[in-house]
Amino acid sequence: MAQLDMRAKLAILADAAKYDASCASSGIAKRNSKDGKGIGSTEGMGICHAYAPDGRCISLLKILLTNSCVFDCHYCINRKSSNVRRARFTPEEIVDLTLSFYKRNYIEGLFLSSGIIRSPDYTMEQIVRVAQLLREAHDFRGYIHLKTIPDADPALVHQAGLFADRISINVELPTVAGLTRLAPEKSAPRIEAAMGNVRHDLDNSTDAGKRFKSAPKFAPAGQSTQMIVGADAATDGDIITRAAGLYDRFKLRRVYYSAFSPIPDASAVLPLQRPPLMREHRLYQSDWLMRFYDYQPAEVADAADPATGMLPLDIDPKLAWALRFRDRFPVDVNRAPREALLRVPGLGVKAVDAILATRRWRRLKLADVARLTASIAKVRPFLIAEDWRPVALADRADLRPLVAPKREQLELFAA
Fold this sequence. Notes:
By secondary structure, the chain is α/β, with parallel strands linked by helices. The protein has 15 helices and 9 strands. The protein is globular, with a radius of gyration of 24 Å.
């Protein structure tokens, strides 16, 4: 490692960080250096691109402290037995890179993770030192996301939260059986205990902030986690149930899903092929249903095939649920409550809010609803409007082909 220059280290450790999906920057506290003090900002438009809830693109330097690791997790390309080129930054080198990239307007923040070297505590100390140097020595006010280590001393994780906007602890795999089989050196109870400690610190910080204006903020953007999809036998129903439990117990901001990708010199216990990327997309859609559409975890799981536990890949989970529970439809857009309208395929939260606001003054027709959705063909069988009632569609046995999106061959050189 000693003979590698900064450029070579950056090439290795930035590429090694690409498997971590949980680098979004939603929920950050607004800071800037317009007062002439410090450096950096968490605002504005933005080498990793994350998106805030308002659509802003946040560019992050996404790297590992090191890709060396004392653990031998089967699914990880940086595992101890993996034949990959190793590199390691010092905390000072990462600080210099972050500041240099920021001053060139390449980035607005840092996402830092690491393999485990020497011990979890030693590695966590190095990660915390990076954030501490940025905040205290250089008054950096940009975004910082630190990936913490569940086996590290809780005091070190707490210290990380005092410097970072967001911290995250990966649960790695959806089931305890999968984790035991593919990452025997990691422990589900220890991971959950670490997440519980972070939630306790977040609650204490919120309580202290209400009573004292000068109270230090702990990870104001909360905590998140990530799980690998397709490396073990967990079904989509298992993953949905697991994610719902994590949201409920630890008040996570996000659960990220990362489709398993086959790695060089892979262990024999891993699948030979990656899962369809559409599966990852459907899980994110299911996650959205629970977070923004008031679906209960069991309801989302009901959208999966009862025999396999897997969500359909050709249609979204909301449409799959509606097709399974035809008795809940059609709903009247002029009378139905908000929770019933949110179940209508093709109607998003904004569309439902617009319907509720408009129908206070007049009754809506099908054309009014069509202006609020991208596909009125998907919506029509599931609603009643002033001039529309799906008499011919409501009981059709072959409804799915009519509402499923049409497959099209895209043109390579289309404008």
